[in-house]
TrEMBL record:
<comment type="pathway">
    <text>Porphyrin-containing compound metabolism; siroheme biosynthesis; sirohydrochlorin from precorrin-2: step 1/1.</text>
</comment>
<dbReference type="Pfam" id="PF00590">
    <property type="entry name" value="TP_methylase"/>
</dbReference>
<keyword id="KW-0627">Porphyrin biosynthesis</keyword>
<dbReference type="InterPro" id="IPR000878">
    <property type="entry name" value="4pyrrol_Mease"/>
</dbReference>
<keyword id="KW-0456">Lyase</keyword>
<keyword id="KW-0560">Oxidoreductase</keyword>
<dbReference type="InterPro" id="IPR014776">
    <property type="entry name" value="4pyrrole_Mease_sub2"/>
</dbReference>
<dbReference type="InterPro" id="IPR014777">
    <property type="entry name" value="4pyrrole_Mease_sub1"/>
</dbReference>
<feature type="active site" description="Proton donor">
    <location>
        <position position="216"/>
    </location>
</feature>
<dbReference type="GO" id="GO:0043115">
    <property type="term" value="F:precorrin-2 dehydrogenase activity"/>
</dbReference>
<dbReference type="InterPro" id="IPR012409">
    <property type="entry name" value="Sirohaem_synth"/>
</dbReference>
<keyword id="KW-0511">Multifunctional enzyme</keyword>
<dbReference type="InterPro" id="IPR006366">
    <property type="entry name" value="CobA/CysG_C"/>
</dbReference>
<dbReference type="InterPro" id="IPR006367">
    <property type="entry name" value="Sirohaem_synthase_N"/>
</dbReference>
<keyword id="KW-0169">Cobalamin biosynthesis</keyword>
<keyword id="KW-0489">Methyltransferase</keyword>
<keyword id="KW-0949">S-adenosyl-L-methionine</keyword>
């Protein structure tokens, strides 16, 4: 059976949804995203749907469907678990010449919901002669192709974003960038990258994209950070769309604040795209949750690049006295002094520690020790060091 694909522009138009179960729960968010005014008719609804109703995002008539409910509807979704009700809803819609999707019976349905994916302003809908699994498989393949760039979706230059996007690339595995980050990266004309950003992300950029390796900028009279800011701003002022790609989250020990200020001062439009920080993702990748109900109710992320002493802004004594999880970044070199300061502050010498090196990459290595032995336990850059009871409860992954 073949279908005629169309895109419904539902902005401001009423849509009737009958039934408040998981199918309605899956469809309603997309109807809302398309701007539809949703009337839900159902005696019961999922928590998410009742939250929508409570927030006024949909109208919910808490009762069984009755004839006439679809009078104002441009489009109807019959998604109850009672086939006879769905059939009645569909029959009435048909009598009124209103398109209706019957969720329970594709063959009896006048319209089908297609397998759908959206990436970077491109929307793809797939049907496969009524075989939803096959349609979903093709949809997944196309969506993956769009994300990796294997399927090109060239855009009109005038619709490109302008200015600078500060994009967190995630902890190391290229798959852990956000969809928004990837979407912007695919449109970049200039990418200013640093060493901890996944190389695979750069490999997928087009030949015409200028890649500036921040680690290789000449020092000269300026610090590299000033050079980075200058390159970003200069290129953006030339009218190029610049992505500043950082490992983890750019605002966690990533000097993102300085880059943001540089853009704002230069009057360059700037978008901030958060990334998955190694401070949380690193422990997670080693099976260590930074919090755990009934075990620990706080975690602190500290940099160890300055050893404990007058130069450090971290109150190591207070951290030692607490009982929360401590996550250390940039602490490989100073780990012995930090462990000593924490123990001096009151942390038990036997407190469990995990050292997660190259977290989330194929080279990930995890070592364990007690806090007292941190200084003599092997550790290499880049490592996240997680200290606390949660480190001792780590599950093997
Ligand atoms: N903005 C980054 C952190 C930058 S500071 C973020 O949010 O993740 C650099 C430090 O991050 C490194 O010294 C190391 O401690 C940690 N780090 C970053 N990526 C890492 C990874 N894949 N594995 C382990 N540690 C990592």
């Amino acid at each position: 059976m073949s279908v005629y694909e169309i895109g419904l522009r539902l902005q401001g138009k009423s849509v009737l949804v009958v039934g408040g179960g998981s199918i309605a729960g899956r469809r309603v968010p997309r109807l809302l995203a398309a701007g539809a005014r949703v009337l839900l008719v159902a005696p019961e609804a999922t928590t998410t749907l009742s939250d929508y109703a409570a927030a006024g995002e949909i109208q919910w008539e808490r009762r069984e469907w009755r004839s006439g409910d679809g009078d104002d509807a441009w489009f109807v979704l019959a998604a109850t678990d009672a086939p006879e009700v769905n059939a009645a809803v569909a029959a009435e819609a048909e009598a009124r010449r209103t398109w209706c999707v019957r969720a329970d019976d594709a063959a009896a349905s006048d319209a089908w919901t297609l397998a759908h994916a959206e990436f970077d302003g491109v929307s793809v809908a797939v049907s496969a002669s009524g075989d939803p699994r096959r349609a979903a498989a093709v949809r997944d393949a196309v969506a993956a192709g769009l994300r990796t760039g294997e399927i090109e979706a060239p855009r009109n230059r005038t619709t490109r974003p302008a200015g600078v996007a500060l994009v967190g690339a995630g902890p190391g595995d290229a798959d852990l960038i956000t969809l928004r980050g990837l979407e912007l990266l695919r449109q970049a004309e200039v990418v200013v990258s640093d060493r901890l950003a996944p190389q695979e992300l750069l490999d997928m950029l087009g030949e015409d994209v200028e890649i500036v390796d921040a680690a290789k900028l000449p020092y000269g009279r300026h610090t590299t950070q000033e050079q980075i800011n200058a390159v970003m701003v200069e290129r953006a002022l030339e009218g190029k769309f610049v992505v500043r790609l950082k490992g983890g989250d750019g605002f966690v020990f990533g000097r993102g604040a300085e880059e943001l200020d540089a853009c704002l001062e230069a009057g360059v439009p700037v978008e901030v795209v958060p990334g998955l920080s190694s401070s949380i993702a690193g422990p997670a990748a080693a099976g260590v949750p930074v919090t755990e109900r009934g075990v620990v109710h706080d975690f602190t992320v500290a940099t160890g690049h300055v050893p404990p002493g007058p130069q450090s802004k971290v109150n190591w004594t207070a951290l030692g006295a607490g009982n929360g999880t401590i996550v250390l970044l940039m602490a490989v070199k100073n780990r012995a002094a930090i462990a000593a300061a924490l123990i001096e502050g009151g942390r038990a010498p036997e407190t469990p520690v995990r050292i997660v090196e190259n977290a989330t990459t194929k080279n990930q290595t995890v070592r364990e020790c007690a806090l007292a032995d941190l200084g003599v336990t092997e550790a290499h850059h880049p490592s996240v060091i997680v200290i606390g009871d949660v480190a001792g409860r780590a599950r093997e992954l």
